[in-house]
Amino acid sequence: MMKKCLLAAALLFPALALAESNIGIVYPLKALQETTAVKGKMSALEKELAPDEEKLNKLGMEVQELQAKMQKEAMTLSPDQQEEMSTRGKQKMLEIQSLQRKLQGRAEAAQREVMEDMGPKFQQAIEQVAKDKKLDLVINAQAAVYVGENAVDVTEAVSQQLNKMK
């Protein structure tokens, strides 16, 4: 009987210790997006990609116009004219796909650059915020299955700490 009580107590202590712990949660993406450094990088990226995005929109409009013209004039176009229009449409679609891949690749590269630059700073910011708020544990809120009302959301504090860091 004594062994059962000791075993129950031993199993209960970690749960009690955790219940008394101060737990913080952070939304990493939101914390990073709210920093002036990331906002600046995203603004620069938008300016860099704007001409290609504009070209992509223009190509999309041209494809739509070609399709509309082919449908409208299908009966009056010769087979050679239909083939030529179809070929132009296919070429524009290939150009659209190529441009989309380019834009996607640049966006992914920019995201990697931000994470390489901000990753270590993010960890330092979390550690500083945890110390300041006397937290025992800070977890990624998106990885948590359940977050109780006693958990402290430190996302904004982490963003502010990142802004202080150079």
TrEMBL record:
Stored Pfam families: OmpH
Domain of life of the native organism: Bacteria
GO biological processes: protein stabilization
Keyword tags: Signal
Secretion signal, residue range per the UniProt entry: 1-19
Gene3D superfamilies: Skp domain (3.30.910.20)
Keyword Secreted annotated: no
GO CC term (a single one): cytosol
PANTHER family: CHAPERONE PROTEIN SKP (PTHR35089)
Protein name per UniProt: OmpH family outer membrane protein
Species of the source: Alcanivorax sediminis
